[in-house]
Amino acid sequence: MSSGPMSTGRPRLSRLTRLRRDRSLLLMTVPAVVLLLVFNYAPLFGLVTAFQEYDPLIGVWHSGWVGLEQFGQLLGDPLFWESTVNTLYLSFVQLVLFFPIPIALALLLNSVLSERLRNFVQSVVYLPHFFSWVLAITIFQQMLGGAGVLNQFLRGHDIGTWDVMTNPHTFALLVTSQAIWKEAGWSIIVFLAALAAINTDLYEAAAADGAGRWRRMWHITLPGLRGVVVLMLVLRLGNALSVGFEQFLVQRDAVGHDAADVLDTFSFYYGIATGNYSYGAAAGLFKSIISLLLIWGANKLAHAFGEDGLYRK
Amino acid sequence: MTMTIERGPTTSAAPRAVARRGNRAPWEEPPTTVGQAAKGLTLGTMLAVVVVPLWIIVVTSLSTPGAVNRAGGLVIWPDGLTLEPYREMLGDPTVRTSLLVSLGITLVGTLVSMAVSVLCAYGLSRPRSLGHRFLLFLLIVTMFVSGGLIPSFLVVTGLGGYDQWWALILPSAVSVFNILVLRSFYSSTSADLVDAARMDGAGEWRILWSVVLPTSRAVTAVIALFYAVGYWNSFFNVMLYMPTDSAKWPLQYVLLTFVNRGNGLPGSVNSGFGSTHAQTAPLSLQMAVVVLTLVPLLIVYPFVQKHFRAGVLTGAIKG
Amino acid sequence: MGNELSRRHFLGAAAAIAGTAAATPLLSACGDGAQQTTGANSEAGLKAALPAYVPNTPVKPDIPSVAGGPDVLTDPGFLSYPANPVATVSGKPGKGGSYTAVTPLWGTVPTADNSFYQAMNAALGVTLAMKPADGNNYATIIPTMTAARKLPDWIQLPSWWNPNFNVGELAGTQLADLTPYLAGDKVKKYPNLAAIPSGAWRAGAWGDKLYGIPSFSSGFAVAGVVFHRRDVLEAKGITADQVRSAADLMNLGKELTNAKAGVWAFDDVWTYMFPSWNLPLKWAVDGGKLVHKYEMPAFLDAMEWHYTLATSGYLHPDAIAGDNANAVTRFYAGKTLIGGGGAGAWNLADHQSGVAANPNYRRGAFNALAADGKSAPRIFLGASTSEISYLNANLKPAQIEELLAVANYLAAPYGTAEYTMVNFGVEGQHYTRQNGVPTATDEGKKDVQAQTFPFLASPSAVVSNPGGDVVTKDYTSWQIANVKALTKPVFWNMNITMPQWASTADAAQAVEDTVKDCYHGKKKVSDVQAAISTWKSSGGDRLKQWMTDNVLNKYGTGQ
């Protein structure tokens, strides 16, 4: 609550006064809001396809109406629930194993003094983000697959093979490792920016007060990161129903659909791929609604912990 | 791997007040051996797991068709090298024009996106400003709800966007994620600085321009990077809004046609279908495309990194 | 479901089905009954719309076609290219009109407005703006175009979409009816189009009328072939004709697999192998009743064999991991020795790629076999073409005639002057003759070989691999050896459009997923059985009833 000058903004001010006071701020949001209204809100009429039997060749206006039938079918579909459970489980694993890693790596990288080394490491490790999942998984398969470098070595030395690419039981760990490998370097960047925004004078003052490196990290670095970490966490929770698409599409055959189907691949296979667009749209709309509830909840949770979340309470 | 270097070029801001021995501030403790070892090991692992695949990609991109087909996949050890895939791609007139197109779209797109996002993020960064919660809600909804492909297409073509450059920029000009990140940084801009500016009678535009932006150069650079690589790599809007106007395609979409060569022909088709093009693109060509995609990213990162230091300096001085 | 909805679906379905069977009594009166030699009288309407077939082979093939039955014909083989191609079209077909054409492109995009396009326009007498679109994303691009009614004058719509995209509903509204121009003897005005066998035209017929112009048609369209590395097998003293049953193949799996050396006998073969258990592709008719392959006990036998193949370790681990993209490279490298695939893989480029890795490389295919080694082997005939182009419904009759004349030029048979122009371009600029064979220059490789025009119209398939005659000989002799085994499946070449629920049941995604897991050794046959019984109760049985009532009983089997 220490935002200083805006304490003039007492809650009791009339709307008109606030409007006069904030008109520049409101004006600044206009371009973005207009773009979103035109390119994101206007196409929302497409959501009606979830209540139709939609055929893209004849269009939204001429497709027949079925009301809530698609949703009824969806909620009674065991495969839908299976993929929902998979999605939530994978989200949880990623939250626990993946989420802290970029933060830790950013701290590590930030502590490297040589700027040239820091630069080099960072510009290399962010490259996998730009690989397609097809390529990423081809590389994994060639290294760790049943006929890959590792297993051919084990075979050559008559040690048993290690099935990691097609084992449905360890699939969650596999996809999380892949995600870390591909995305961690990229996710570091925003934390590095947050670290850069911390005023170095604070460190000097703390050191002068006799605070060691760990205490400085605890009392200066981590609080400096808090805003962006909480933001990422809230968004991650809101996105709990999205864990990726292509990664699962490519590996679906490897571990079987009951391990690999997540909500997005479910919509694809049982919606679009079989021409059942409306079923896919219904699954999508369902996911949207739950996601909005989740992000609302995550934001409340942040507020309960005294954090700002998406906006100040 | 550590090396002693002199500090890179810096901004017009005064050199760091604190003198450093090497790069270490005098108040920092000397490193412990264990700490250094752990750090080295982690960095080494991070690098290795990326450098090895990069090696494989580069070697494959330089391999002859025979080498790739003997390897039966990606090539790990060089076995017959050639520059042919690169020659083929870079010698292609469509690739050359598309490079200019991509540069143009990335430049214009990033400028538009940054202008729109910075303004919006700052406009929403004040707690208790009028309507900011409603507007945030409006923004966030678009992260989770979408009308789908065809409705978007109908809106853009309804506005006359078919085969138009703007259709590659405006529909994806706003990233709500990026706005939220910017906003989070702006909200934590030192209140003292903003106060001081207001005391001097500065309006919001002035505060944004001469206080907030100069003190948040790191995040500005990062978000600009996010937008720029987004535009550089995007091909989806091209596919939708100018799928057949190949003279206007940006680089990534043209490269896609190299990757897709012969791909996606359904196996069920037996029709004497093109005597040469039933052949899928050799892996070497696909990997050459990957390499061409990565090179600009390697070049661009240091320019972003540069701002990580400069932003703090300015902030510190003003404070 | 509301009444209106059901009616729409019924009409849509009926209209689409009628495309292949067409029995509306009103029209059958005008049908050309005399030409009707096969099939039930429900074929009458279609027969009336189909163009007459007038074979035309100006260049005699070195390996002539062999007929195997109605609509079944092997592709002719050519071992040389005529030194002086003859012209089949006199003058320019066009009258100076300007048109736009969109085709899918699985290759690098030709330079816009390149010298080949210009030469073609000069030869055709029209300004045809070629707009190739990325083939891999074509299925996303076209529905957006049709939704916004932005179809070009001439467009290629591959028929493998029909179940998903309901092309039948575009016919007549956005796509032009060609019946008045091509039906029966009218096609004789366009002799090269008349030389395309009628089986191929069926695929572009909807609602009793003709809409599509076929490309790349063949009388020997098969779902796929079980290939092997002929060089490797023969070096071990194994020839294809020794393999006569599923058990023989399983033995090969044991003999050829050497995991330590990185060699596995098999890549995926299920899609191409399962009919060997006397199974249909989907439907069979048994005693006048429709039966789905899932309901047949043999289906589980086929499953069991493939499950054993995988669990015995004869299937390459990358195949089990679903990496199909690199299957062909594994085959070249000799990491797999047997694998299924489309017969289109048997071509010159394949030969060159294989030889680059191993000079002895030779692709071979097993003959059709019955799993038990005793029954008569069968291979099912696929649709005669999967690539069909359509004209825009907004074109005026004179414009349609002009474009059909252009199509006639594009469809000129192998070895003619027009064929040379369409496929090789201008001599000296796009190709040169090397040992008598037209060989593309760099410019030709870039702009001609990208194959844009042939997707608008092309003659029926020939086998020709200049510089790789071994491929031509191997492939044509395999076709000839198997032509008797070629069988029309139930509902052959019928454009069946189903209501949404039925096409979902027809796709049977959940069963097919389990089947795939089973032939990869990850699910047991009993799991497949369970998936099938779920499928039956959740739509499969209803689908069978619908197919019986709306297709079988009304339009017959199409065989």
> How many E strands of chain A?
2
Which fold name is given in CATH as the topology of the largest domain in chain C?
D-Maltodextrin-Binding Protein, domain 2
Distance between the termini of chain C: 34 Å
> Which pair of chains forms the biggest interface, and how many residues does each contribute?
A-B, 99 and 116 residues
Number of helices of chain A: 14
Fraction in beta strands of chain A:
under 5%
SSE pattern of chain A, N- to C-terminal? HEEHHHHHHHHHHHHH
| Percentage of residues in strands of chain C | 5-15%
| CATH homologous superfamily label of chain A | MetI-like
Shape by Cα distribution of chain C: globular
CATH class of the largest domain in chain C: Alpha Beta
Number of domains of chain A: 1
Q: Look at the helices and sheets of chain A and give the structural class.
A: mainly alpha
Parts with pLDDT < 50 across at least 5 consecutive residues of chain A? 1-9
Task: Write a brief caption for the model.
The complex is a heterotrimer of chains A (about 325), B (about 325) and C (about 550). Chain A has about 325 residues and is mainly alpha-helical.
Write the layout of secondary structure elements.
The complex is a heterotrimer of chains A (313), B (319) and C (559).
Chain A: H1 15-41, E1 52-53, E2 64-65, H2 69-75, H3 78-97, H4 100-110, H5 115-125, H6 133-144, H7 149-156, H8 171-196, H9 200-208, H10 213-238, H11 246-255, H12 257-260, H13 263-270, H14 277-304
Antiparallel strand pairs in A: 1-2
Helix pairs in contact in A: 2-14, 4-8, 8-10, 10-14, 13-14
Chain B: H1 33-61, H2 65-71, H3 84-90, H4 93-123, H5 132-144, H6 149-158, H7 176-187, H8 191-199, H9 204-215, H10 217-233, H11 236-241, H12 251-259, H13 283-318
Helix pairs in contact in B: 1-13, 4-7, 4-10, 4-12, 7-10, 10-13, 12-13
Chain C: H1 3-18, H2 25-28, H3 44-49, E1 67-69, E2 72-73, E3 77-78, E4 98-105, H4 115-124, E5 127-134, H5 138-147, E6 154-156, H6 162-165, H7 167-170, H8 179-182, H9 191-194, H10 198-202, E7 205-206, E8 209-210, E9 213-215, E10 225-229, H11 230-235, H12 246-256, E11 264-266, H13 270-273, E12 283-286, E13 289-292, H14 297-311, H15 317-320, H16 327-333, E14 336-341, H17 348-357, E15 363-365, E16 379-380, E17 387-391, H18 397-410, H19 417-424, E18 431-434, E19 437-440, H20 442-447, E20 463-464, H21 469-482, E21 486-487, H22 500-507, H23 509-519, H24 525-555
Helix pairs in contact in C: 22-24, 23-24
